[in-house]
Amino acid sequence: MESSAAKQQPTAGGGMTTAEHGYLRKELKQRRERLEGALQSPAADASLSQLLADVDAALSRIDQGTFGTCEECHESIETERLLADPLVQFCLDHLTTAEQRALESDLSLAATIQRGLLPKVEFAPDGWNVRYHYQPAGMVSGDYCDLFETQDGLLFMFGDVSGHGIAASMLMSHLHATFRSLSEAGFPLDRMVEDANRIFCESTLAGQFATIVVGRATRDGAVEFVSAGHLPVLHIHCDGATPKESTGVPLGMFCDAHFPVHQLKLADGDTLLLYTDGLTEARNRAGAEYGLHRIRALAARHVRMKPAGLISECIGDLLSFGEGSKQTDDLTLLAVRRADKSAPPA
Which range is least confidently modeled, 27-36, 105-114, 134-143, 212-221? Predict the structure, then answer.
């Protein structure tokens, strides 16, 4: 998902927005105060003086309007890298060999940690069949998928953070920790999402947001869910596939937003299909978009298919549509199916 900030026209200093510059200036000044305090200690490490000089240099670049510009090629430094480390002075193309190795190591570690946050592949909650597909466009992803069994059934969280790469993956991990903590409190869904939204608003920059679906499913097939600006959830049943539209704004846009709760009943064998815009906004070589209508039509052709088969059909259809086009956005799908008690064991 591309953030609204990313769509703005470049400004002086690496194309960053005024809000991002203001945030980083404040962050750098706070670091400067901490460094000055630490240097007062007789046991202060000598390297702190160099860090203080680096912070002062970054503040000077902000004042001069050169912050975020590569000192080698004078092109913009990647915004997400500046947000993660405002002291960087070179774009990815002009890192030293040591810096390249360090970045590769950090990305590999981040990818390992992120995959560790995903549900177990063999996850099999009582009364439900579930399967997900997680496919980052790069080493790390801004897509969010989590499931776990509760005393009454199943809790699922699924979403898409604005942007790509490291910054988006960090926000995704933040969302994961937030919802895991809130879910343990046993709040109603609307309260859970409203609390998560306030936390998200207070810890992100202007232009950063997340679309998300949070749902509870009980063993009798009752489902309630909140959809905060996400793509329509598809309810797949014997008569076809019915989209359930979002009724709330994405997380991070308004701190006091409210999030209505949807309710529906799944019959034995019914499925909920969730997906990120890495599916619907994928384009083929002719520039045509995959679109909502195509995934809905595919789901309607496979109303009795179990989650593993359904997701396999989705991926196969996307590959056929794309005709070998390069993946440009993170792609995640989740299928949650009420077990069909009348069907023979798989």
Answer: 105-114
**260 residue type, one letter:** P
Give the model confidence (pLDDT) of 103-139 as tens digits: 777 777 777 877 888 888 888 888 899 999 999 998 8
Residue of 223, 207, 265 lying closest to 15 (CA atoms): 207
CB 279 within 8 A of CB 311: no
160 backbone dihedrals φ, ψ, rounded to 5°: -150, 120
Return the closest-CA partner of residue 67 out of 15, 32, 144, 104: 15
Query: From CA 211, how far away is CA 221, in angstroms rounded?
Result: 25
What CA–CA distances, in Å, run from 256 to 182, 194, 201, 253?
A: 17, 8, 9, 9
The enclosing H or E element of 137 equals none
pTM: 0.77
Pairing of the two strands 222-228 and 210-218: antiparallel
